[in-house]
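Revision sheet: structure tokens.
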Amino acid sequence: MSGIYIHIPFCKQACHYCDFHFSTSTKKKGQLVEMLGRELKLRKNEIPGTIQTIYFGGGTPSLLSSEELESIFLSINQNFEVSDSAEITLEANPDDLSEEVLKVLNDSPVNRLSIGVQSFFEADLKLMNRAHNATEALESLKLAKRYFDNISIDLIYGIPGQSDKQWIENLEIALELDIPHISSYALTVEPKTALETFIKKGKIQPVTDEKFRKHFDILVQKLTNVGFEHYEFSNYGRPGFHSENNMAYWLGKAYLGIGPSAHSYDGKTRSWNVANNSLYISALAENKIPQQQEVLSLTDSYNEYIMTRLRTKFGVNSEDIHRNFGKLYEEHFVKEVQVFLENGQIEKRDSGFHISEKGKFLSDGIAAELFYLDD
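Predicted:
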């Protein structure tokens, strides 16, 4: 099973918390789409087997015209074998999802929408500098449900000024709309973002760890109580609606990243494209792939296995560690995991080690404590 990720690096405006690569100028969009097709052709032999997932991320892929989207799918199908049952996701912003756009997407191979709602409250959206308003957030979902069954939304918790009551209401609105998949993230203050600047200047008060933890606990309880499975730290889905793209990433499957700043992984090597639209276009115009590569060491691969698997419902298996990395790493894990078994943050079930309810919010920190450090 392999996947393709396509980065569309254009946005109407800059969200205050975002540190992804994007541009608010779309004047090079046509050129860039052409070069996406060229990169797909140049890299068609890099990943094995049938493509099972295609994911349009960004940026804002819903800014693509029907012709641009058709061009990208033509390039994919000319160069790769795509499964008839492939999950094909497109990220969209609520303000882009007019009935006309939804009809175009419904007529395309896209069969799953990931909609960047973030919040149903006007004050939250203004603080984050989102391009849509609260009414558009709600109406876009009602409209999208006429054309798509498989819909995911993003919701952000730990927003400065967001009360517990408002966070609960955000979740209740999503449940009332019968959205089958929710990805939910804490509002992280990334370096060199507008949000960081506002906090440093005292214009916005930072959120406490206690508030983040409380909102996370509300999230888990609210969704799991009504049948959502918390299958990965930030992802919750009803049966049959888990993101195949997300799971492929967390389970270490191969994927090809196309577009400026996109990352790829083939099981042994990670690579990433230049995070600059002009440099990306000029390199591909000369049939050069503008990327850097890193060959993962055995220790790197072990540490990634620990980090990604502990975030998921699958957990870590010591037999897998022995088979894939060797006795040294298995013995290290078995020794280091004991303290977390004793304090109840990790549980042993069958042959696997899983983050407990007590440890869920701390899963990344726990994983880091289990890393193997080369001398």
